[in-house]
Amino acid sequence: MTRPILLALAAGLALAPPAFAQGFSPEQRREIVDVLRDALKQDPSILRDALMALEQAETSAKAEAQRAGIAAQATALFRNPEDPVKGNAQGAVTIVEFFDARCGYCKQMEPVVDQMLRRQKDVRLVLKDLPILGPNSLLASRALLAAQRQGKYAELHDALMKLREEPAEPVLKREAERLGLDCGAAAAGHGRPGDRPAAAGEYPPRRRVADRGHAGAHHRRHAGAGRRRPRHAGAAGGGGARETRGLTAMPHFLCQTCSIQFAESEQPPAACPICEDERQYVPARGQQWTTLDRLRGGHANTWRALEPDLLAIRSVPAVGIDQRALLVRTPAGNLLWDCIALLDAATIALVRALGGLAGVALSHPHYYSTMVEWGREFGVPVWVHAADREHVTRPDPCLRFWEDDAQPVLPDITLHRLGGHFAGGAVAHWRGGAEGRGALLSGDILQVLPDRRHLGFMRSYPCLIPLPAAEVRRMAGYCAGLEWEAIYGAFHEREILAGGKAALARSAERHCAWVERMVEP
Predict the structure, then answer these.
(1) Coil, helix or strand for 327?
(2) Averaged pLDDT of the chain
(3) Where are the domains positioned within the chain?
(4) Residue 382: which H helix or E strand, with range?
(5) Would you say the CATH fold of 293-516 matches that of 79-244?
(6) DSSP 220-246
(7) Minimal CA–CA distance to 385: which of 422, 331, 430?
């Protein structure tokens, strides 16, 4: 059966309505399911491609609906006479900017937008104040209303965008005095007669768009329409607050170096404690940050079958440390071992098509990544050893901190604490792996080396700090008491399919020999 036919069948059976299935007899349906099951075991990307095609179609339909919505609200968006305008008031191209005076992304993009207006003389920029980031946002919004009444909206707007402090009342009064505004009106935020103060999180009443749904996806979003024909400008900036069920949520920033995700915040964290630890590193160029939404825009996940019931998931281009996640399928449910940062719609659909997840388990903090996103998406516990609790950067009720040296998570899979690299460093013992001979999923607690015949043991891999001999012997001795044959590491093609236990013993002895009695070079 050719690949296009398989793709059509996969999409039809997994995604079509029940009426599709009623066109086949029970015998035909069983035959189709058997063919698909065999094909998916050999090449799981078949289903991924079908789901990606569906996602692209849905994305196109959503984009068309958004265009129609913008067209329906064109007058309120682009030609509201009460909206302040920068640039060429008669410009042929209109850009609408929704901003908040406290938004860090808006402030970062302000000089970029100003430079664009200086270079593009035919652009008309409509400013719509959307005070969604708290009480000081509302104060700043009211001050802007007062400044517009006094003919100095642009001056106060520019001043607020350059602020590196909160726009609290004393600050607003200072800026108003500097600009020659009526300080009482600006500080109190008095607008023109009849204006009422906006409620917390509400769009200012005299500039409210009739259908707010088009204003809420990000608090800084631009839409454009020309007088002659529509033209649109995409979002400037990225990773800002997003609207969730009518409320605005701040982003969960990710460290670009290790891809660990942090609790939500308006601005990126001051530092990444994972990278500042001696077991990781801060790049020479400094700490850089991203978000899951940004990753979804430029990355995809690839799948590789390592065994009939073991799939490796890896992101391209590489993200963070470039580890892979392993999806283990068992009769009692599936386990995701270690995490990758990218969790997108295609990955979610494919995992659900394969039976979903019964749990997520982590080897150590370097692979925590977006573990909370995975746990919350699939509604499952995320198993983390309690000895590494201090390294969690995004607390959540889905996290399950286990203690002692062993923790069963499924009938066929038990987590074992080995320590070494981290105090809570763990491996997963999968008794059904390697055709029933047993397998270890080791992350880099036990690092499978490129020759796929040896393993490495380090406190820090990037900083080249080895583990002491006594610790390595203890770890190897513990693993010798488990029944296993294969070992699967954290990176692409880092697995030993046969003789894994012997390779561990041989590698431990070699490591200890060099650490204890290194000879002259």
Answers:
(1) strand
(2) 83
(3) 3-72, 79-244, 293-516
(4) strand 382-385
(5) no
(6) S-EEE--SSS-------S-S--EEETT
(7) 422
Decide: 279 and 421 in contact? Cβ < 8 Å: yes
Q: Cα–Cα distances in Å, from 451 out to 101, 185, 392, 496?
A: 56, 73, 33, 9
Token representation of residue 130:
């959307």
Contact between 334 and 343 (Cβ < 8 Å): no
The residues that bridge with 224 in the sheet, in sequence order, are 95
Calpha distance 420→426 (Å, rounded): 9
Determine the Cα–Cα distance for residues 73 and 200; give it in Å rounded to an integer. 24
Tell me which amino acid residue 499 is.
Answer: G
Paired strand residues for 359: 335
Contact (CB, 8 A) for 252 and 371: no
Rounded Cα distance, 192 and 63, in Å: 37
Q: Which of 150, 143, 145 is nearest to 180 (CA)?
A: 150
46, pLDDT greater than 70: yes
Residue whose pair of structure tokens reads 């060429």 in the numeric block: 88
Question: Which pLDDT value is given to residue 18?
Answer: 46
pLDDT in tens, 261-305: 999 998 999 999 999 999 999 999 999 999 999 999 999 999 999
Which residue's structure tokens are 């894994």?
500
Residue 158 has, within 13 A of its CA and on its CB side, a CA count of 11
DSSP state of 492: T
Distances 284 to 24, 318, 333 between C-alpha atoms, Å: 61, 19, 43
Q: Write down the pTM of the prediction.
A: 0.57
Rg over alpha carbons for the chain, rounded to the nearest Å, is: 28
Residue with tokens 């200890």: 512
Please tell me which residue, 80 or 40, carries the higher pLDDT value.
80
H or E element at residue 489: strand 486-489
Within the chain, what is the greatest distance between any pair of CA atoms? 88
Q: How far apart are CA 177 and CA 61, in angstroms?
A: 50
pLDDT at position 492 is: 96
DSSP 365: G
Distance (Å, whole) CA 294 – CA 89:
33
Show the CA angle centred on residue 90, arms to residues 86 and 92, nearest 5°: 100
Helical segments of 43-80, H only:
45-72, 74-78
Express each pLDDT in 144-181 by its tens digit.
Answer: 999 999 999 999 999 999 887 888 888 899 999 999 98
Please compute, for residue 396, the number of CA atoms within 13 A of its CA located in the half-sphere on the CB side.
24
Tokens read off for 174:
């200072």
Query: Given this structure, which CATH class describes domain 79-244?
Result: alpha beta
- CA 413/CA 379 separation, integer angstroms: 19
User: Whole-angstrom Cα distance, residue 73 to residue 79?
Assistant: 10
Domain 293-516 class, CATH top level: alpha beta
Could you write out the DSSP letters of every residue in 441-495? Answer: EEETTSEE-TTSS-EE-EEETTTTEEPPHHHHHHHHHHHHTS--SEEEESSTT-E
- Pairing verdict, β 325-330 and 310-316: antiparallel
CB half-sphere exposure, 142, CA atoms < 13 A: 27
